[in-house]
Specification:
Structural class: mainly alpha
Helix content: 55-70%
Shape: globular
Oligomer: single chain
Strand content: under 5%
CATH architecture: Orthogonal Bundle
CATH class: Mainly Alpha
CATH topology: Farnesyl Diphosphate Synthase
Radius of gyration: 18 Å
Order of helices and strands: HHHHHHHHHHHHH
Largest sheet: none
Number of domains: 1
CATH superfamily: Farnesyl Diphosphate Synthase
Length: about 270
């Protein structure tokens, strides 16, 4: 689902934004690949260390990786600062360490690291292209701050059981509750708690999109598509038999149609 949603966001983005999104998603994919279970831990740390350095170089407009070079070139052409994706490396670092989140504040910080890097870059891209209205940039920033953490949390809860099996539990817990939340299948109480959170996230995403004024929707079409897909994921996950990150056979087609519908409406300035 994660890869599919990014493919759909890129496919239905305005043409001028697609090469930049391809580079952005390539970097995210490389960094999140450090969490792959089949990688030896030392290899994961070495790869993540290299990418941490590369994101520092990108912020200084001295990147080496082709995707980072592409992002720097776009920023230079638009006379804006190079993308600051350094928080993405911090997001991956915390996940790699399998740190338990003892309260909502800690978890929100983790989610904001992803949102402030990947989703913020995507959202603000739509407000900084040559044809964009500069007055839409604050709108893009607000959408990124509100919808970004919710999108990432939905993605993580969608595959909650798979992440828990790897030692990453994406809900605030006390240390003595780890065994309860890593048990598979989850208990009824735990599943009910996750469903309640998914319902909250679904409502939050709907509200975040509704807050975007009509004149700004065309430029923010990519961000709106992603938020609507995450909203759908939250709804489907609440009714799923398991939280292992699995899609039904027809879901890829349904998501493609949904992404197209949302993109068309956004480009028309509609909700």
């Amino acid at each position: 689902m994660i890869a599919l949603d990014r493919e759909l966001v890129q496919r239905f983005a305005p043409a001028l934004q697609r090469p930049t999104l391809a580079a952005l998603f390539s970097i995210e994919r490389e960094i999140l690949d450090t969490l792959r279970p089949s990688l030896e831990h030392s290899v994961s740390h070495a790869k993540l260390g290299w990418w941490s350095d590369e994101l520092e170089r990108l912020a200084l407009r001295r990147p080496a990786h082709p995707s980072a070079v592409a992002l720097a070139r776009v920023a230079y052409a638009q006379s804006r600062s190079a993308p600051d994706l350094r928080a993405l490396a911090e997001h991956a670092s915390v996940a790699l360490a399998c740190i338990a989140f003892v309260d909502r504040t800690e978890l929100q910080t983790h989610l904001r690291h992803w949102a402030h890097s990947v989703f913020r870059e995507l959202a603000t891209l739509g407000a900084t292209t040559s044809s964009a209205d500069p007055r839409h940039l604050p709108i893009a920033e607000r959408l990124a701050a509100r919808a970004g953490p919710a999108i990432r949390e939905v993605e993580l809860l969608f595959a909650f059981e798979r992440h828990a099996r790897a030692g990453r539990v994406y809900i605030p817990i006390e240390p003595d509750q780890v065994a309860i939340w890593t048990a598979q299948p989850l208990g009824d109480t735990q599943r009910r708690q996750l469903n309640e959170r998914l319902a909250e996230l679904e409502a939050e995403l709907a509200a975040a999109v509704a807050e975007v004024p009509a004149p700004a929707r065309a430029g923010l079409a990519s961000a709106i598509v992603w938020a609507r897909l995450a909203e759908r994921t939250a709804r489907l996950t609440r009714g799923a038999a398991s939280l292992r990150g699995e899609l039904g056979r027809m879901e890829p087609l349904r998501r493609t149609i949904r992404a197209w519908q949302v993109a068309v409406r956004a480009l028309q300035g509609a909700a």
